[in-house]
Amino acid sequence: MRAGWLIEAPRPLTGDQLTAARKLAADAGLTVEDRDESDGLLTLRTTATAAGAVLALAILAMAVGLIRAETAGDLRTLTAIGATARIRRTLTSATAGGLALLGAILGIAAAYTVILAGSSRQQLHELARVPAAELLVIAGGVPLIAAVLGWLLAGREPRSLTRARLE
Length: 167
Known about the structure:
By secondary structure, the protein is mostly helical. Helices cover 67% and strands 0% of the residues. This is FtsX-like permease family protein.
């Protein structure tokens, strides 16, 4: 029993064309459904990219915070010998940016490895469309944001230059 027909158009139908098709179908006792898959997938892809970037930056902030806590003595020493806030900011910025870049490269490589491992030969043609904009945001934007945030948030002087931290 035939349940429906799939009709593909060479280009997206306009609102007037869909209205006319729905009127013709209603006269025959049928319905017309249209699907614009690009909008839904674009929104999903953009949201997933943004959520992943925020999550990566949060994890990176924790890692840089731990690194700074472990090297607090070294920062005190640098400050005591005359290192300016600019030098301390540069160290933190370079650390955050480098870790973010490494994480982005490893994450992208791991994602494509998993996709390739889970795909059959017939599905490999689907990988031809590379989401370049999203990958550029991940590989370039996240490390840049991490470096800028590291620069902005790391300039204050250590609390005490005279007392060593008790452990």
